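Hey, can you fold this?
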Amino acid sequence: MMDIIVKNGTIIDGTGKDRFKADLAIKEDKIVQIGDLRSLEAKEVIDAKGKIVSPGFIDPHSHADLSLLVWPENEANVMQGITTTIGGNCGFSPAPLTDLYLFTAWEFNLLYKVKPSYYKDMDLFVDLDKMREAFKSLYNLDLDYKTMAEFFTKAEKQGFSVNMYQLVGHNTIRTAVLGKDYKREPIAEELEKMKELVKQAMKAGCRGFSTGLDYIGSYANTEEIIELAKVAKEFGGIYATHFRQMDNVDEEDELGTIKGIKEAIKIARNANISAELSHMFPAMLLSSADPLEKKKKATQIIVDLINNARQEGIDVFFDVIPSISGGGSSNPNFGRFFRPWVLAAGSYDQFLRNLNIPDYVEAIKRDVKNNEYGWLKLGEWPFDEMIFIVKSEVKEFENKSVRTIMKEKGWNFIDAMIEICKRAPYTKIRFDINTPNEWIQEILKHPLSMPCSDGLSFNQDSEFGLDFPLNVYPHPNNFCYTIRYLTQYPKERLEDSIRAMTGLPAEVFNIKDRGVLKEGNYADIVVFSPKNLATNENYITPGTFPDGINYVIINGQITAKDKKHTGAKAGRFL
C-alpha cells in the first residue's frame, strides 16, 4: 500500500529531458516507483490527467529564514510550488548574535516599537534584549537563540512547511565581531574571530557563506571575504554574493555591475569555491528608457564574464528576479513617502488637512531640500521614474510614472508628490527598481540563470508596518515569481524552464536526492495545469495566490491542495 499515487500525469523530471506520461508512487517521504502503476493501491490518489508533474521548485535566493519563526507555514512559497528555499543570502542570517540585532529590512513594526523615529524607518542596529521584548509583544515569539545551532533547534521544534538550505551571513558575522564599529577593516584577531564564527555555523549545518556588499559588508576588502569563503569551502560550502552594485563601473564603455562581478569571480577563484551571483541586474546605469541595444550590450558583457570564468574552471552561476519591481516587501500607498509628517500629525487625515496650510507645505519642501528624509531626496535616485501609479482617485494619474505626470503638469518632483497626495491621497503605486523588462528577458535566456524571489517567509495575511498609509506588506513577487517566470519569461521548452527551477539549483547548491523526479529521491513534487497558470499579481492587495498550482507535496506530505495550505509542516533543514 502506497501513501500517495499521482496517476495519469505528464512528468517533467527536472533534468531537461523530454516529458513523458507515467504514474508516480510515494511511500513515506520518498518516490518509490515511476511507471504504469495501475495495479498499485494507495491511501490517496491524485488524478493528474492533463497536468504536469514536476519536482518541487527551488528558490535559489531567499530570505525566508529571517521570518521563518514568525510565519512558518510560508504560504507565499508553498502556493506557487516552492518546496525548498536557499536562505541566509545577502550577508544576512538569523545568527550568530551577540548584544545587537541587525535589522534586515522587514521588521518595520518591531523597530518602531523599540526605537520610534519619524524620519528613519530603519536602523542598522537594535539592542537585542529590546528586540526580544518586541518580538514577544507583537508575535508572542521567544527570540531565545544566539547561534545557528540554536536557531536550527528552535525552528525544528516549532516546525515549518518548506525545506530550508541555510547560508551564514557576512553582515551578521561582522556585526557579531565589530558591532557598531563596522566601517573599517578588522585587525588580525578580529578576522580570526569571524573565521571561527563561520566555522561554527558550518559545523552546525550551514551549507555556505554569503555576502551583502552594498550593506555592512561594503566596508570589507576582498581579502577579508576570500579568507572567510575559504572556511566555508573547507566544509564543502558555496559562496553566494550580493556583489558590489553601486558605483562600480570600470571603464566608460562598461555598464552596470561589472566591477562587482569581477570581484566575485576573483573571490571564487582564490578561495577555490563555487559562486552564486545573487539577483543579477545592471544596477542603476540602465533604465526602461534606454535603447534595446544598450540593454543587450549590458547583458553580453555580464554573460562574457561568466562564460570566461567557467572556461577557466570556476563554477559560477547566477539568479535573477523575474520582475521589474523587485521582491521583498512593498507598500502600495502613495502616502508612504510622507512618513515623518504623517507620524507627526498623528493621523493621515490630519496630515492631509495640514497640506492646505501654505507654510506647512513650505516646511516639507525645506526638509526635502536639506535631505532630511531619505525617501524624498532630490537627485539621489530617479524616484520620479520609479514611482508608478496603478490606481488613483484622479484617473489621469493612473498607469503613469511620477516623471510622466511632472512633464504633463509642468511640476518639479516635490511639487508633483505633494499635489498628487492632495488631489488623490489614496493613490496606489508600484515601486519599480528600474530594471528594464527587456534586460530580464535577455539574461534569463542564459542556461546558467535561475529565477529567484529575493523574498521572505510570508503568509497571505502577513503585515509588518505601521498604521495606514505606512503599513507594509509582502511584495507580490513573494507569491508568484515562479508563475511569472513560466508565463512571461519562458524558455523555448517547458522542460528547460522547469530544470532552471529544479534540477539546476539542486546541482548548483549540491542538494542531494532532490530537484529531479526519480525513484529513491525525496517526494518534493508539484502538480500544475500549464494552461491555467496565472500570477494574479496585485500591487493593491499583494497577498494573492496564483492560479494553476493544483498540489504541492513536500517530503511526502500534501502541503497545498487547490490554493489551500493543508497545515502540514514537513519542511527540513537540508
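Oh, and this one too while you're at it.
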Amino acid sequence: MLPVKGVTDSERPFFIKLNGTAVSSANAYNWFKKVYTKCGIAYQGECFGPRVHDIRHTMATHSLAKMIRKGLDVYTALPLLAACLGHKSLTSTEEYVRLTCNEYPELLEMCISLNEFIYPQKDGNE
C-alpha cells in the first residue's frame, strides 16, 4: 500500500516511491517517456513535449471543463482551480487552461454567449 500521510502538505512530493520518499525528476521523466513511447506519442523535442508538466496543464483544463459542465460559473471555477494549483493569481491559472474549439465546443459557445452579454455588438449607427 502507498503511504498517504501528509497528503495535504503542499511541500510533499507528488511522485513518491513505495517507501514514501520522493522520486527524482530524472526517474519521473524516464517513466513518463516510457509511457508516451508505448502509447505511440512522438517526442517533439525538449521544449515541445510531451513533458511531465503537460499533465498539470491537462488536469487544469479538464477540471475547469468539468466544473463548468456541472453548472459552476466560470468566475467561481477559476479561483477554485487557482487554489488547487497553488497559484496566487488568476493570470497564472488562465495560462494553464487551454480550451480549444474541437475539444470543448459547448464551453466555447458558453464563452461566446457570455462575451456577447458583456460586450454587446454595436450596430452601425452608434
